[in-house]
């Protein structure tokens, strides 16, 4: 049996609900965007249902400690197709066993979720580290990112608490939505980059007059802090993989 | 104007970079005044320099003018280099603007000693106060304690800084006397002790009174220069151990000496910094702090120096083969932690997972155990039966044969005849 869902968390949790409703035996969960029909396996399309999803989530909260609830959510945010099936199987495994079953690192789904969550948490941490704001002429601190996983929901609080006295925008170019903090709350926003679709960075003319100076000072500092006699390119790349360089002010030539 | 500040930043960041601590962990400050800055308990490294070291803090000297002439220090009085000094406002302005752009976690402020200790400490304190009180800044501040500064100033600084540190510089008194005759360890121990007593006192008050201000919430650290003087690894780690014990330090840093002087008492210019040795010392430090090893188990009169070719944990294991093999499914956590190839995370997962059934090799691999290393020291549910016991030296040869050191560029494996 194959369950097909729409890729939403609601859909995934609904699938778990439907499985317990019907108990169809071994079932795989697939997301509709990449699903290829198979000749000999029956498929069922899952209709996302908030009420059913809420019930499943409540149930999981009873069975899972806080850290495993977060592991579950983080794995979902990885957006990896295989992760959805592991989440589905994991939920079934948890409901069919006593509380505490998540500690069974011998179980395939437990270890898979632990791995997905680790990747997502690492990406989240990297965004907290590598995001560089640019101050615009109207006092807004702006940045755009395209993280490997959908981490905006995870970093929102960190930036809200830290930069409570400045307005900021963090925009996810890949997923086409962003976060805007207006000194009170964080809200999701979408920006239409119709004019400058190729270069989403705001042009220099729109920047705060001192933005260029501080960027320059930071680049200077980055160079000065390096000890040439200890050069270790391998370690450097391990910590700052090349795909993140585009975010980093200190890694820009001009 | 911008040229002058650039030059100052270059000089004073360059002079500060030999202080290796860049940790921003342990801060507990919350942004509860709608200001700026909120600690991240484990700290954040915002970038890494090309030497692979983390950049978390804006690490600068207030000035590199100094009345001392310590041979190992780039800012020593007799060194012919450009001198500069920041004003208090310049440091505040740089910190705030870097922090607002998410370049840094906070400020690491040190200084050469100009005029006298108190004069210098006062300036450092002023920077902290301006940041905390005028700018409502709750980011991280790592402040150097200036040896010889008055207790009043040090105590006040502790109310604004997250971490304070003061460097031992050389692992032994004799080494220090050789290179910095004007200094001694007692000058370092006194303020370390004073701050530690205050940390304890504030913590005790906090139990009784609700609103006690924070006092150095991220604790103290120190640093030793390695390889400038001829101490053994045992000397170094015994000193480190004593300081961890006596002053509840959060960290001891080991800084491989980068030659900056052509004095005959020190390694000549152009000598490679002892990176491998530094690495082994940090490994030992971790074994002491997170793996339950006593320093005497790793370094003693029979083994005064750490092995170069293998790490200290493996080295301990092959010297103590009587403890192995360890049964993964039965041994207690402490013993599992001592198995080469198993770290803290894997050890924790193992003790959780084995409650659900005996663990097999494939499961251990998935948990994250470095099985090729660990297999010589463990048994699990499906370990292959082994006819003979191998000697420690043989196991070492097996492991060396299949692993590659990132430091030793040439392969120096010897043929094993027996």
TrEMBL record, chain A:
<dbReference type="Pfam" id="PF13566">
    <property type="entry name" value="DUF4130"/>
</dbReference>
<protein>
    <submittedName>
        <fullName>DUF4130 domain-containing protein</fullName>
    </submittedName>
</protein>
<feature type="domain" description="DUF4130">
    <location>
        <begin position="82"/>
        <end position="250"/>
    </location>
</feature>
<dbReference type="InterPro" id="IPR023875">
    <property type="entry name" value="DNA_repair_put"/>
</dbReference>
<dbReference type="InterPro" id="IPR025404">
    <property type="entry name" value="DUF4130"/>
</dbReference>
Automatic annotation (TrEMBL), chain B:
<dbReference type="Pfam" id="PF04055">
    <property type="entry name" value="Radical_SAM"/>
</dbReference>
<dbReference type="InterPro" id="IPR010994">
    <property type="entry name" value="RuvA_2-like"/>
</dbReference>
<dbReference type="InterPro" id="IPR023874">
    <property type="entry name" value="DNA_rSAM_put"/>
</dbReference>
<keyword id="KW-0479">Metal-binding</keyword>
<dbReference type="GO" id="GO:0051536">
    <property type="term" value="F:iron-sulfur cluster binding"/>
</dbReference>
<keyword id="KW-0411">Iron-sulfur</keyword>
<dbReference type="Pfam" id="PF12836">
    <property type="entry name" value="HHH_3"/>
</dbReference>
<keyword id="KW-0408">Iron</keyword>
<feature type="domain" description="Radical SAM core">
    <location>
        <begin position="61"/>
        <end position="193"/>
    </location>
</feature>
<keyword id="KW-0949">S-adenosyl-L-methionine</keyword>
<dbReference type="InterPro" id="IPR051675">
    <property type="entry name" value="Endo/Exo/Phosphatase_dom_1"/>
</dbReference>
<dbReference type="InterPro" id="IPR013785">
    <property type="entry name" value="Aldolase_TIM"/>
</dbReference>
<dbReference type="InterPro" id="IPR058240">
    <property type="entry name" value="rSAM_sf"/>
</dbReference>
<dbReference type="InterPro" id="IPR007197">
    <property type="entry name" value="rSAM"/>
</dbReference>
<dbReference type="GO" id="GO:0046872">
    <property type="term" value="F:metal ion binding"/>
</dbReference>
<protein>
    <submittedName>
        <fullName>Putative DNA modification/repair radical SAM protein</fullName>
    </submittedName>
</protein>
<dbReference type="GO" id="GO:0003824">
    <property type="term" value="F:catalytic activity"/>
</dbReference>
């Amino acid at each position: 049996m194959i369950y097909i869902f729409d890729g939403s968390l609601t859909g995934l949790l609904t699938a778990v609900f439907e499985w317990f409703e019907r108990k169809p035996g071994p079932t795989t969960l697939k997301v509709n965007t990449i699903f290829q029909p198979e000749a000999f396996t029956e498929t069922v399309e899952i209709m996302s249902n908030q009420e059913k999803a809420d019930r499943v989530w409540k149930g999981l909260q009873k069975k899972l400690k806080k850290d495993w609830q977060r592991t579950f959510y983080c794995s979902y945010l990885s957006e990896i197709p295989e992760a959805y099936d592991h989440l589905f199987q994991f939920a079934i495994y948890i409901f069919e066993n006593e509380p505490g079953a998540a500690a069974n690192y011998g179980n395939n789904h437990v270890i898979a979720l632990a791995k997905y969550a680790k990747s997502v948490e690492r990406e989240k941490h990297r965004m907290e580290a590598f995001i560089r704001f640019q101050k615009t002429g109207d006092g807004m601190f702006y940045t755009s990112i395209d993280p490997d996983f959908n981490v905006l929901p995870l970093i929102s609080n960190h930036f809200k608490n830290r930069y409570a006295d400045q307005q900021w925008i963090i925009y996810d170019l890949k997923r086409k939505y962003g976060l805007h903090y207006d000194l009170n709350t964080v809200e999701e926003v979408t920006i239409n980059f119709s004019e400058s679709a190729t270069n989403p960075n705001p042009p220099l003319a729109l920047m705060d007059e001192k933005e260029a100076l501080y960027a320059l000072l930071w680049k200077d500092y980055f160079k000065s802090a390096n000890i040439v006699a200890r050069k270790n390119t391998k370690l450097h790349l391990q910590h700052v993989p090349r795909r993140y360089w585009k975010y980093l002010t200190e890694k820009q030539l001009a | 104007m911008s040229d002058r500040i650039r030059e100052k930043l270059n000089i004073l960041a360059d002079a500060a970079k030999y202080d290796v601590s860049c940790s921003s962990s342990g801060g507990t400050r919350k942004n509860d005044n709608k200001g700026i800055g909120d600690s991240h308990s484990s700290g954040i490294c915002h970038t890494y320099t090309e030497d692979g070291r983390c950049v978390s803090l804006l690490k600068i000297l207030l000035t590199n003018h100094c009345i001392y002439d310590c041979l190992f220090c780039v800012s020593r009085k007799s060194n012919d280099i450009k001198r500069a000094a920041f004003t208090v406002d310049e440091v505040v302005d740089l910190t705030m603007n870097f922090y607002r752009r998410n370049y840094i976690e906070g400020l690491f402020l040190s200084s050469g000693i100009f005029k006298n200790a108190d004069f210098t400490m006062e300036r450092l304190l002023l920077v902290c106060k301006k940041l905390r009180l005028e700018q409502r800044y709750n980011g991280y501040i790592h402040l150097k304690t200036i040896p010889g500064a008055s207790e009043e100033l040090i105590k006040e600084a502790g109310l604004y800084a997250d971490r304070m540190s003061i460097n031992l510089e050389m692992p032994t008194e004799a080494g220090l006397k050789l290179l910095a005759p004007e200094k001694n360890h007692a000058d370092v121990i006194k303020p370390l002790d004073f701050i530690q007593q205050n940390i304890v006192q504030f913590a005790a008050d906090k139990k009784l009174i609700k609103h006690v201000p924070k006092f150095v919430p991220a604790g103290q650290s120190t640093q030793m220069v390695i390889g400038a003087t001829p101490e053994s690894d045992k000397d170094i780690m015994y000193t480190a151990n004593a300081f961890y014990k006596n002053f509840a330090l959060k960290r001891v840093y080991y800084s491989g000496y980068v030659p900056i002087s052509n004095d005959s008492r020190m390694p000549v210019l152009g000598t490679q910094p002892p990176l491998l040795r530094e690495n082994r010392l940090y490994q030992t430090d971790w074994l002491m702090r997170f793996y339950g090893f006593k320093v005497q188990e790793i370094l003693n009169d029979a083994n005064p120096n750490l092995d170069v070719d293998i790490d200290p944990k493996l080295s301990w294991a092959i010297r103590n083969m009587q403890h192995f093999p360890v049964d993964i499914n039965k041994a207690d956590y402490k013993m599992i932690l001592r198995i080469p190839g198993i770290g803290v995370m894997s050890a924790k997962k193992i003790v959780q997972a084995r409650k659900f059934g005996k663990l097999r090799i494939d499961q251990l691999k998935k948990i994250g155990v470095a099985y090729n290393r660990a297999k010589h020291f463990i048994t699990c549910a499906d370990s292959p039966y082994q006819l003979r016991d191998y000697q420690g030296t043989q196991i070492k040869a097996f492991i060396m044969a299949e692993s590659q050191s990132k430091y030793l560029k040439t392969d120096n494996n010897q043929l094993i005849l027996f």
